[in-house]
Amino acid sequence: MLRFSRTMDKMLATFTASFEAIDVRSREMLRRIDPSRLFERPSASERLYAVASVGECVLRSAAAVEQTFLGITRRLWDDPFEWTLPEKLSTKELINEYLDEVAATTANGLAFIASDEELSKQLPSPETLRPIFDIMLDTISQAEHYQGRAAAILDIIEPTQLFRR
User: Fold this and answer.
1) What value does the mean pLDDT take over residues 56-66?
2) What local confidence, expressed as pLDDT, does residue 5 receive?
3) Euclidean distance between CA atoms 132 and 14, whole angstroms
4) What is the average per-residue pLDDT within 123-149?
5) Taking 80 as the threshold, does the pLDDT of residue 85 lie above it?
6) Residue 122 — φ and ψ, nearest 5°?
7) pTM, to two decimals
8) 3-state class of 134 per DSSP?
9) Rounded CA gap, 27 and 92, in Å?
10) Residue 37 C-beta-side C-alpha neighbours within 13 Å
């Protein structure tokens, strides 16, 4: 898991905590789902719109984070779609290993950003120059969107009270 230092600025600490929470939620969903249902899609009678599976959404969430931090640190903005296919990462164990890799990439990326001031630095994101702050905020939004979809699908196929209070 990611941990931030006591000297880290507030915005950077908030981003660090947000990415850690994304990782924790993905692992919790994986822990709760029956392995045989990881890539199950709800039947037409159980859903209102076309959906993916819990496994696919967890992978897309993690891939969004990986893409951002590879972009920030290496200027590699390629979508990790090919190496995150369900055919390649077909079990909970393999997905957890991938989440470990994403957590390490995230930690390296956050270490690359030394202070809140650096969050305003412009980077050539895939198509335009954008501040790191904006890129990271968009990534959190995208990753959480996929997690929300995963949680909704999980609730349909295997009601677990996952995020209910």
Assistant:
1) 95
2) 47
3) 14
4) 92
5) no
6) -85, 135
7) 0.86
8) helix
9) 9
10) 17
Token pair for residue 142? Answer: 């995208």
Helix-, strand-, coil-residue percentages of the chain, each rounded to 5: 65, 5, 35
Q: Which amino acid is at 104?
A: A
Residues comprising the chain, all counted: 165
Contact 125, 90 (CB under 8 A): no
Written as six digits, the tokens of 38 are 């990881």
28 three-state secondary structure: helix
For residues 53 and 115, give the distance between their C-alpha atoms in angstroms, rounded to a whole number.
38
Please spell the DSSP secondary structure of 66-85, one letter per residue: HHHHHHHHH-----TTGGG-
| Tokens linked to 130 | 């954008």
Q: Which of 80-89, 90-99, 131-140 has the lowest mean pLDDT?
A: 80-89
* Token pair in block for residue 72: 């920030």
CB 119 within 8 A of CB 113: yes
- What is the C-alpha separation between 87 and 89, in angstroms, rounded? 6
As a whole number of angstroms, the distance between CA 163 and CA 44 comes to 24
Residue with tokens 């880290």: 8
- How far from chain centre, in Å, is Cα 99? 8
